[in-house]
Amino acid sequence: MRYLSTRGRSPALSFCDILLGGLAPDGGLYLPEAYPRVCRAELDAWRSLSYADLAFALLSRYIDDIPAGNLRALLAKTYCAKTYAFTRPGSDAAEITPLRWLEKDRLGLLELSNGPTLAFKDMAMQLLGNLFEHVLEKRGETINILGATSGDTGSAAEYALCGKRNVKVFMLSPHGKMSAFQRAQMYSLADANIFNIAVTGMFDAAQDVVKAVAGDAAFKARYRIGMVNSINWARVLAQIVYYFKGYFAATENNDQQVAFCVPSGNFGNICAGHIARQMGLPIARLILATNENDVLDEFFRTGVYRPRGAAETRVTSSPSMDISKASNFERFVFDLVDRDPAAVRELWAEVDAGKSFDLSATPHIGRLPAFAFVSGKSTHADRLNTIRRAFADYGVMIDPHTADGLKVAREQATGDMPVLVLETAQPAKFGDTLREALGRDPERPSALAGLEDLPQKVEVMAADADAIKAYIAQRQ
């Protein structure tokens, strides 16, 4: 399997090469030459597999430069009950991603937040950490991981990579824009290979710094810069697995169809659903839910992609979705324009210049219904009401991002088709909003008691790519 850049001006590479490189040299994102298709017999055979075995059945289609035995061992090491032990009350601890029905066979929560940082990002990051360590050791190389987080990516990456051989992590986060729990998870890590940088400004400013550093080919090569943001294909690839696992849990046979509702800011999570559907998983609808930062909802309603500047980006109570330039959206648009890299280059020349693009009057928009996306948005008031209703009706506490998804899922549900809302995080990460909604503290695993009281280690810096590069260089 070879991987192509969405902008078409970088050579095709193997999986291990793009794993370590992240962003393509031409500024594009990597995608496989073609999505492997799965047949009915394979779906039938995969229903009874464990999560790790299902991951091998899927990921081995995309990864052919890691020996099968090694890949299987890495997946078994990653997807085990020991790692995903933070199950919520009422969950099946034997399952990696339990399905909790709120309304039997109609509306469910696919729990993705039982990993060490209580966020769905663990589902991919834990694998990424093991893949990095394996490939670097085989090649005798080191790497400096540079990432940006709006809340959960950072802690998931750091917990996956802390103490790993041959890896240093430099994680940018928006200063003062995350919850206290999220900050404590990241900044309290004392491992010598972890460096936290709080960037003044919104998440998009941090993300722009990461892209600017990645675009400096000489610096990237000299300091072996790698990426863990969802611009790294391995992140998206790992997330495909739980769409298949959720589908199997929600259906009795492969003649049935389901809808998935995905809270989305950077388009990585729902991009994995798009790819699962392209592979042949019977997904009837992909429901995208945004918060007040509704760039993606606007596109799917109007055909206009209009990234916002910092002044227009709202600080909300679902902070991990406070994103106005969705990095992974380029991957979907590449498919939407029939994989024409020249078209992508033209469109992203506008985006990179701080402008918008409008596909509403182009032939491309006619292909959009074939991809089965619908969308909606949620506000702070909606989140509070949805959290209250979920607790009153189902006895379930949900975090504010999952509440965005549940609100939009109810609006977009059709007939008796099951709708699965992808859980984003456990409510313990967002105590202020849960207290506002319910007047009580959210449930928290006992192992994480007193997390906010631990000493924290972080540097506050301007969103300046040159200053960040200097900081990295000084710590080699």
How is the secondary structure organized here?
Elements: E1 3-5, H1 15-21, E2 30-32, H2 40-46, H3 51-59, H4 68-78, E3 99-103, E4 107-110, H5 122-139, E5 143-148, H6 152-161, E6 167-174, H7 180-187, E7 194-199, H8 203-214, H9 217-222, E8 225-227, H10 233-250, E9 258-263, H11 268-279, E10 283-290, H12 295-302, E11 304-305, H13 329-336, H14 341-352, E12 357-358, E13 373-377, H15 380-394, H16 400-412, E14 419-422, H17 431-438, E15 459-461, H18 465-474
Parallel strand pairs: 4-14, 5-6, 5-8, 6-7, 7-15, 9-10, 9-14, 10-13
Antiparallel strand pairs: 1-2, 3-4, 11-12
What does this protein look like?
With 476 residues, this protein is an alpha/beta fold. The chain has a domain at 99-115 and 234-438: Rossmann fold (3-Layer(aba) Sandwich). It is 40% helix and 14% strand. The chain is built from 18 helices and 15 strands. The protein has helices at residues 15-21, 40-46, 51-59, 68-78, 122-139, 152-161, 180-187, 203-214, 217-222, 233-250, 268-279, 295-302, 329-336, 341-352, 380-394, 400-412, 431-438, 465-474, and strands spanning 3-5, 30-32, 99-103, 107-110, 143-148, 167-174, 194-199, 225-227, 258-263, 283-290, 304-305, 357-358, 373-377, 419-422, 459-461. The strands form four sheets. The chain has a six-stranded mixed β-sheet with strand order 3-4-14-9-10-13, sandwiched between helices. Strands 8-5-6-7-15 form a five-stranded parallel β-sheet, sandwiched between helices. Strands 1-2 form a two-stranded antiparallel ribbon. Helix 5 (122-139) runs parallel beside helix 6. The two termini are 34 Å apart.
